[in-house]
Amino acid sequence: MEEYSKEIQRLGKVFLKVFSINLGLNEDCLQNAFGGKDIGACLRANFYPKCPQPDLTLGLSSHSDPGGMTFLLPDKRVSGLQIRKNDQWTSVKLVPNAIIVNIGDQLQVFLFTLQTLSFD
User: Fold this and answer.
1) Rounded to an integer, what distance in angstroms lies between the CA atom of residue 102 and that of residue 65?
2) DSSP letter string over 28-42?
3) Cβ-contact 81, 100 below 8 angstroms
4) Each residue's pLDDT tens digit in the chain (120 positions)?
5) Between β-strands 82-85 and 88-91, what pairing exists: parallel, antiparallel or unpaired?
6) d(Cα 104, Cα 114) in Å, to the nearest integer?
7) Distance CA 69, CA 15 (A)
8) CA 20 to 30 Å from 8, out of 50, 52, 98, 101?
């Protein structure tokens, strides 16, 4: 878990650098906005045992991810991840060994603020 956490954190820094460069910002702009070299991260592992009556399960309520980015390593045995697109819930088709990256609320707000300031 420790090694996985470090690698995901490293991957997050790569994404922030790539996003910064592609947005025409200094390459360390987004990383600095999220804590610089001491950028924080947390790891949460969920276990969903097989339910004998799946029609009775509720799952999680709809939500957004509050942080900068969320990395999901889905389990092919447990489906259920959905996204909202065009006011419809759509199931996400899992790709074997892929990591899903969700852009979180903080990063969206930061990018929206940059866009607003840049075009006014």
Assistant:
1) 8
2) THHHHHTTGGG----
3) yes
4) 889 989 999 999 999 999 999 989 999 999 999 889 888 788 888 777 777 887 777 666 777 888 899 999 888 777 778 888 898 888 888 888 899 999 999 999 988 888 787 654
5) antiparallel
6) 16
7) 9
8) 50
Using the structure block, give the residue that is written with the tokens 């942080």: 67
State the DSSP H helix or E strand holding residue 12, giving kind and residue range, or none if neither. Answer: helix 2-22
Can you tell me whether residue 2 is helix, strand or coil?
helix
What is the β-pairing status of strands 100-103 and 82-85? Answer: unpaired
Q: Is the Cβ–Cβ distance between 65 and 106 less than 8 Å?
A: no
For the chain, the residue count is 120
Cα(119)–Cα(14) distance, integer angstroms: 27
Give 90's strand partners. 83
Residue 69: what are its φ and ψ, rounded to 5°?
A: -145, 150
